[in-house]
Amino acid sequence: MAGLQSGSPTPQDLTVHGQSRVLEVSFSDGQTFRIPFELMRVYSPSAEVQGHGPGQEVLQTGKREVDLVGLEPVGNYAVQPTFSDGHDSGIYSWDFLYFLGSQQDQLWADYEARLQAAGVDRDAPMPEKAGHSCGGH
Q1: Which of 19, 72, 94, 101 is deepest in the core (most CB within 10 A)?
Q2: In the chain, domain spans
Q3: pTM score, two decimals?
């Protein structure tokens, strides 16, 4: 999902709502999504979160209060947010933002199931990083 699929809806408007911690995105097909910063952060498309292959995903916790402190355009196909916890390596294509917005209920359910399976609380602090040296972070 790194690029823009031909014929895919494109954003017409992006609004950062800091107080309610959501990114509102209106697309060319008439859909408007309010994507919580926490959801964006825990599903970041970065290697730091997704890993470098299947099964290497890093479960994110303690992100309920995360803020969006920057949002930079990447060409004409994506944005790169900077979160208040310092995470800034995810590039969110228009397709990926549409996916996050349209699949929110399922993504939240999957996230909660992953937390439960790991025996971790959503608000638990992230463990310290140790031994990861891919050089991309």
Answers
A1: 94
A2: 11-118
A3: 0.88
Of 36-45, 48-57, 68-77, 92-101, the range with the lowest mean pLDDT is 48-57
Please check whether residue 32 is in contact with residue 26, taking contact to mean a CB–CB distance below 8 angstroms. Answer: yes
Output the six-digit token pair for 46.
Answer: 């970065």
How far are the Cα atoms of 46, 48, 61, 106 from residue 56, in angstroms, in the given order? 12, 10, 16, 21
Q: Which amino acid is at 48?
A: E
Answer yes or no: are the C-beta atoms of 112 and 42 closer than 8 Å.
no
Q: Which two tokens stand for residue 98?
A: 């549409």
Cα-based distances in Å from 97 to 12, 132, 136: 13, 28, 22
Residue 33: C-alpha distances to residues 16, 54, 80, 126 (Å): 12, 28, 18, 28
11-118 CATH: 3.30.2020.30
pLDDT reported for residue 132 = 45
